[in-house]
Each structure stands twice: as C-alpha cells, then as structure tokens.
Amino acid sequence: MDRPARVTAASRPDPASSRAPTPASDPLGAFGAPIPRRRMLLLLGASVLATGSGLGALLEACGPVAPVTVTLQINPATMPPGVPVEVPFSMTNSSGASVQASMWLLKNAGGSLTAYDPRCTHAQCVYKWVTAENKFKCNCHGGEFALDGSVLAGPPPRPLNRLPVHDSAGVVTVDVPGDFVTPHESLGA
C-alpha cells in the first residue's frame, strides 16, 4: 500500500513568496511597483554615465558651431557716422552650403563699428533700413528696430543680434555664425 506523502516544513511553499512584490522587496520596480521619481532620475543618470563617450559625441554635435570670419568689401573711412550701410557678403557655412546675404554695418560717432545680423529676431526674415522713418523695418510680420537695434514695434522677441566686428587698418572682418543661412525674403514694402 502506498502511503500518502507527508508534508514537512521543508517542502511547504513559503507564503511570503506567493505575495505580490512590494517596494521594499522589489527595489527596481521590476514587477509593476511604481518607481519613485528620485530613484528613476538616479537610474537614468547612471545609465547616461555608463554610455561614456557616446554622450560626449551627442553633446558635441548639439553644441555651438564655430563662427566663420567674413571679410567685408567696404572702407570704414568712407562711411558716414550714424547711417547704417548694407554690405553684401558671401560665405560657406559649416554644412558646406554657399550663402549669399548682406549685413548692416553702422559707424558710430566715435568711429567704432557695429555689425547687425541681417536676420530679424522674430522669423529670420531680411529687414531694411528706412531712412525716412529712421528705423529698420521687417515686412514679414511688422517688426521695427531702432538704430541701436532695440525693438520698437511688432513681434520680435529681442533686439537685433550683433555680430563681432573687427577693423584692422581699414580691413573689416565680421564673425558670422558657422550655421548661418540666408534670411527669408520679406514681403514687399
């Protein structure tokens, strides 16, 4: 006759193992338990650090592009003070594209030069100097700027961007952003 198997303490299932995981028993949240925000941020940070140079390469690709120095064909001695002059330039940007544009150069009363990025700070449209109104105007969305580049009207979020300009013995160079693209054409005046 066969006897029924005897159940001993060693062969009994552990009641704790049949329970649902708890945050204390499941620190990484592997079975659906919520992961506290702080722990998740620590895990993400550790995984970023573990990727090492991959992150560095990604950040480098997203970083600022080195400027391109452009030599302008203008003699600052012939410029009247306080009157912006549109100066054409061409360059090859960092992606290899040939760019044709013009920037605004202003000779200040003391003889120093100010170069304005030719793109409106609102939608990157080209703007013009309107002598009769003594202001820069962008016809894309009605942006207006004073001689010093400050916003007078319209949607531009900030003053005109200035470009680093250098005058060495009458040779004017300007540092243009390496990722520069030709401004969008404005609508008619």
Total number of domains: 2
Beta-strand content: 25-35%
The percentage helix is 10-25%
Report strand order across the widest sheet: 2-3-4-9
- Could you give the count of β-strands? 11
| The CATH fourth-level homologous superfamily of the largest domain | Rieske [2Fe-2S] iron-sulphur domain
Write the layout of secondary structure elements.
Blueprint: H1 37-51, H2 53-62, E1 68-72, E2 85-92, E3 98-107, E4 113-116, E5 128-130, E6 135-138, E7 143-145, E8 151-153, E9 162-163, E10 165-168, E11 171-176
Q: In brief, what are we looking at here?
A:
The protein is α+β, with helices and mostly antiparallel strands. It is built from two helices and eleven strands. The chain has two domains: 15-62, no CATH class; 68-176, Rieske [2Fe-2S] iron-sulphur domain (Rieske Iron-sulfur Protein, 3-layer Sandwich).
Structural account:
With 189 residues, the chain is α+β, with helices and mostly antiparallel strands. The chain folds into two domains: 48 residues, no CATH class; 109 residues, Rieske [2Fe-2S] iron-sulphur domain (Rieske Iron-sulfur Protein, 3-layer Sandwich), CATH 2.102.10. 13% of the residues lie in helices and 28% in strands. A hairpin with a 5-residue loop joins strand 7 and strand 8. The longest helix is centred in the first third of the chain and has 15 residues. The chain is elongated, with a radius of gyration of 32 Å. It starts with 36 loop residues before the first helix and ends in a 13-residue tail after the last strand.
